[in-house]
Amino acid sequence: xxxxxxxxxxxxxxxxTSTAAFAQDWREDVPVFRIGLLGGENEADRLRExxxxxxxxxxxxxxxxxxxxxxxxxxxxxxxxxxxLEYASLGSSGSAAAYDVPLVSTRDHYSDTSLVSGxxxxxxxxxxxxxxxxxxxxxxxxxxxxxxxxxxxxSDAEQAARDKIALARDELTAAGxxxxxVGYTWDNDVGGGIDYGWGEAQSAAQGNGPKxxxxxxxxxxxxxxxxxRFVSHSLGAQVLLSSLRSLNGSWxxxxxxxxxxxxxxxAAQDNEAPxxxxxxxxxAISNVVTGAFNYHSHEDxxxxxxxxxxxxxxxxxxxxxxxxxxxxxxxxxYDGTSQVGDDHGGYLTNLxxxxxxxxxxxxxxx
Length: 366
Known about the structure:
Layout: H1 2-16, H2 20-29, E1 33-37, H3 43-61, E2 65-69, H4 73-81, E3 87-88, H5 91-94, E4 103-105, E5 110-111, E6 114-115, E7 125-126, E8 140-145, H6 154-174, E9 180-185, H7 198-207, H8 209-222, E10 227-233, H9 236-247, H10 251-254, E11 259-265, H11 279-288, E12 289-296, H12 301-311, H13 316-319, E13 331-335, H14 337-340, H15 347-360
Parallel strand pairs: 1-2, 1-3, 4-9, 8-9, 8-10, 10-11, 11-12, 12-13
Antiparallel strand pairs: 4-7, 5-6
Helix pairs in contact: 1-3, 6-15, 7-9, 8-9, 9-11
């Protein structure tokens, strides 16, 4: 990737220098070629990694090349827009900064099940558009967390996630939701092997819970009066529930804050999770959330195949909570079988009216 990226710059430099007069013109306008760097490494590691390319480009361009490591996508984008950088290699993750839906991103924070150097249990990035963190407060904010993807390449998986987030924004807005939808995108395509990376993806999902929780803390710290809600699809439910467990007993609940509503769609999560069989999750739903709404379809064929095969159990998004168990007192089950059928990807398009109705009437259910 690095060699291909800098080869492209060098090819451009060759074209620019093919005519001496023209070459002199652009060098007068660009006396220093400034490059913004993204990456999970610390600043010293990034500068060292790119030092050879820096020397090569100075030779080819005939002007000094300066490297500027940035801590997040927003910093690089602001540098480009302000004319403070001539070039930045954004990659598939950085391209999210040009995306019009506010994004919280932990893309490339994990290598299989391990955090990469420079990232922490609570770190996250944004694309510079997220209310309460990058911009001013809003009255109502819904975070949508996408699910698993093992069908796409690395870059396509992120694009598919962004497409799903945009669909969530569009469907919820069309159904009457008047707040701000923010996407949460994570390493949903890690791992491989006989289970197609299912085990690693679950670990990454659960590891993202504290990161999503940290965003909720930052939002409520900056915007204490804002309603915050979580909507998830498929394996995103494990991110969502992990975040609630992280928030329970933290600064968030100690200061009287709540997640106003949560809405797992087709949850790839054990169907005992919201019940007293899983007391840590039961307590988290009870203590952190005002109203919880689960949407399931008994005919969801992806959950029947993937979850039942790999977990030898049934998913919350297929059956609802397990019969005979006691769910959290603020938990409501919605059977969407007649609307969703076997279409695991069809919850948003078929149930957005119900989701927004529940959002608008939380008090009637608790």
